[in-house]
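Q: My labmate handed me this sequence with no annotations at all. I'd like to see what the chain might look like in three dimensions before we decide whether it's worth expressing. Could you predict it?
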Amino acid sequence: MIATLVPQSRRTFIRNVLSATAAAFVGPGCGVFGPPGIEEIGHYLAGLIRHPQAAADIGSSVLQTDAAIRSMSPEQLTALILRETGLGDVDRLEVSLDEIGRILKKRVRQDFADETVVTVNGWLLSQTEARLCALVKLQRSAES
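A: Here is what I predict for the chain of 144 residues:
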């Protein structure tokens, strides 16, 4: 069998490569190279926030008022968020990133039902939301 190369633009080639790479990481909790690591999970969690700049601003206030998380790294805060949602340790995590997102949304609703809320800059947030905002701020600080 003879392979035929179809001419394509560089943009099309890159898009196809990125699509193939992304497809390799779709699956129940893991990709080609194993389960997602704590850093990948942290970036996924931060990516759930629709307005990252506003989240970082709120996160800055959260970090100023919450001594328990102020000195944490993004990875430590991600691990704390996972433990608080009942997912346990990242090393034994057996759910997909999408499932983590669903569990987190449920946890936010439960925080409000349990009145586990904080007021930050006039906003009433669940503790989980506040910690996600702090995670965004920590990640931005670590990247700069």
